[in-house]
Design brief:
With about 375 residues, this protein is an alpha/beta fold. It has 2 domains: about 5-170 and about 355-375, 3-Layer(aba) Sandwich (Rossmann fold); about 175-355, Rossmann fold (3-Layer(aba) Sandwich), CATH 3.40.50.2000. The chain is about 40% helix and about 15% strand. It contains 14 helices and 13 strands. A 7-stranded parallel β-sheet has the order 3-2-1-4-5-6-7, with helices on both faces. Helix 8 packs parallel to helix 9 and helix 11 (about 285-295) crosses helix 13. The longest helix is centred in the C-terminal third of the chain and has 18 residues, at about 340-355. The protein is globular. It starts with a strand and ends with a helix.
């Protein structure tokens, strides 16, 4: 039985949730049966290596660069087509809106089966809203679409993707990487000194849909009531300058730290007392899985697939999105009832172990790839 050659496609440079899924799939998949590669779109001003391509190369994953003169370079399609043909790939697996559209157009040139993972939709601008609408239309024509949460599965069905083509594969994590130790974490090295406790972290891209502005406002509200937390916003992105300005305006410079992208979140979570996810939209947040695996309590907004991980009053606390006062109330409740929150985190660890193990997810992904080939009569 020959190995199936799979080409994953990325059109963003950060690692993020989709990137982690691709990298961990490469590590966990049966290498005797599957040969995973990744294609990345590279513009003329892009750096030689991005965080994602550097991480892929570090683990030995083959990386193919697809040159582009700009975001609307239709020549990318021809170069992608040549890559698929010359690489003799059996399946193309897209992961974001641009790669979804190009993969759909590719299917008119090649009979290669196509699959996409719907990680979530971001519509911060007119262009973003257009791409979300276009993405939903093309996904309905894919051979298979993977939903990372039950909520995303419902959204795909509402968008017109036939139920027979939708597969639910929850996001998952490699549990062995997220276990508490007796040693110190990375916090002191990240911010330059040992901060006073308690420590709250938020891990995610600094982008408007992640709700960091709401979180800064919530911290200011909590501070006005005499409650203070050392806060670490781990990540980078287009909203960084706006978040920094908001922190200064609130007078929280000595309380809130922005160390940028953190390569090993488990080492930061080792020092954390609370994880907060103030997002306006989510697929299914890896950061919540990572925090609960480390037995760190989670305060999150009730969006997307988050309630499938953070069960209110059982594995964490949920509040409405766009609601700084509700976030502030949650922060204060954590400070006043920490034992209860720790119990939620312990229950969360048990849930993650039972339901969100990456090895189990990978076996299901392998079965999906095989089924796709068999349905095309190519196995």
């Amino acid at each position: 039985m020959r190995r199936l050659r799979i080409l994953d496609l990325r059109d963003t440079h950060e690692i993020g949730g989709p990137g982690k899924t691709i990298l961990e799939s490469f590590r966990a998949i049966d290498q005797a049966r599957f040969d995973l590669h990744v294609g990345v779109f590279r513009g003329p001003s892009d750096p030689g290596d991005t965080p994602f391509t550097a991480a892929a190369k570090a683990i030995g994953m083959p990386v193919h660069e697809i040159a582009a003169t700009g975001p609307y370079d239709l020549g990318q399609l021809g170069r992608l087509s040549a890559l698929v043909r010359e690489g003799a790939f059996d399946i193309v697996h897209a992961h974001e809106a641009v790669s979804d559209v190009l993969t759909y157009l590719l299917s008119f040139r090649h009979r290669v089966p196509i699959v996409s993972t719907a990680h979530g939709w971001i519509a911060n601008s007119r262009k973003g809203r257009f791409m979300v609408g276009l993405d939903k239309r093309v996904l309905a024509r894919f051979d298979r679409v993977i939903a990372v949460s039950t909520k995303m599965q419902r959204d795909l069905l509402d968008a017109g993707v036939p139920s027979s083509r939708v597969t639910l594969l929850h996001n998952a994590i490699v549990l062995d990487k997220y276990r508490r130790t007796d040693g110190p974490g990375a916090l002191e090295a990240l911010i330059g000194h040992r901060p006073p406790g308690p420590v709250m972290v938020s891990i995610g891209r600094l982008s408007p849909e992640k709700g960091h502005a709401d979180l800064v406002d919530a911290l200011a509200l909590a501070a006005s009531r005499g409650h203070h937390l050392t806060t670490v916003l781990a990540g980078d992105g287009p909203a960084r300058a706006d978040v920094e300005a908001r922190i200064r305006a609130a007078g929280l410079q000595d309380q809130v730290f922005l160390p940028g992208y953190v390569k090993e979140p488990a080492r930061l979570l080792q020092d954390a007392d609370l994880m907060v996810l103030p997002s306006h939209t989510e697929g299914l947040p890896n950061a919540a899985l990572e925090a609960l695996a480390m037995e760190v309590p989670v305060l999150a907004t009730r969006v997307g697939g988050t309630p499938e991980v953070v069960v209110d009053g059982e594995t964490g606390r949920l509040v409405p999105p766009h609601a700084p006062q509700a976030l502030a109330d949650g922060l204060v409740d954590f400070l006043q009832h920490r034992d209860r929150w720790r119990a939620w985190a312990r229950a969360g660890r048990q849930m993650v172990e039972a339901q969100f193990d990456f090895r189990t997810r990978t076996r299901k992904l392998e079965a999906l790839y095989v089924e796709m080939m068999e349905s095309r009569g190519q196995r």
